[in-house]
Design goal:
Blueprint lengths: L1 H13 L12 H4 L3 H19 L3 H10 L1 H8 E4 L2 E16 L2 E5 L8 E5 L8 H4 L12 H20 L11 E9 L5 E11 L1
Parallel strand pairs: 4-6
Antiparallel strand pairs: 1-2, 2-3, 2-5, 3-4, 5-6
Length: 197
């Protein structure tokens, strides 16, 4: 019986791996960190959107003239709908839960533009607009969603920190950002840059 116990303990010892805290095999070190992902990727997403975004009135005109060509030039297909880059300057209207209407001159009648200002930023426009952050690079759907949330938080920390939402109505703002074009007459823009005049 004693020999069997020694053999069993020896087998357990051979099959045991010691994991040091913070070491390569520490699962906490291997877990996906959406905030680190967001902080790493937001700068290049912002640069991509800033380089690709037309003025809102020009985008609306181009979409009306040839939607497919406008999407090819200014957008990225993300599933069934394109994510479009845009720049706009306008007067801030009423807000609700951090989403404000923006009155932009020279827009076609009936086109509504709203901008998310937080504190909660929803959607995956910033993740999807660049076109190279794909589901297959993540372990599962939860990580893929978390990547989008991490990018949104990185944007909010850099672009929206200190924004006085209570005093925003009536001000003129210039916003560059992205929106998912589900309805061509209703744009909900997630900013990558927002300046209040």
């Amino acid at each position: 019986m004693g020999i069997l116990a020694v053999v069993l303990l020896g087998a357990i010892a051979l099959d045991t791996t010691v994991v040091s805290i913070g070491g390569e095999q520490d699962m906490r070190q291997q877990a996906f960190d959406p905030d680190a992902f967001g902080a790493e990727h937001f700068p290049r997403i912002r640069e991509f959107v800033m380089d690709r975004s037309p003025e809102a009135a020009q985008l609306a005109t181009d979409l009306a003239a040839d939607k497919a060509a406008a999407v090819a030039e200014y957008g990225t297909m993300a599933g069934a709908f394109p994510v479009m880059a845009v720049t706009l300057t306008g007067t801030v209207g009423e807000g609700n839960s951090g989403i404000f209407t923006i009155d932009v001159p020279d827009m076609p009648e009936g086109t509504a533009i709203r901008v998310q200002t937080g504190p909660a930023i929803n959607g995956t426009e910033l993740r999807d607009v660049i076109g190279d952050i794909e589901f297959g690079a993540f372990k599962n759907q939860i990580e893929y969603q978390d990547a989008g949330a991490g990018i949104n938080r990185a944007m909010a920390a850099e672009v929206l920190e200190g924004l006085d939402r209570a005093a925003l109505s009536g001000k003129t703002v210039t916003v560059t950002g992205a929106f998912t074009m589900i309805n061509p007459k209703n744009w909900l823009v997630t900013p990558v840059d927002l300046e209040v005049e």
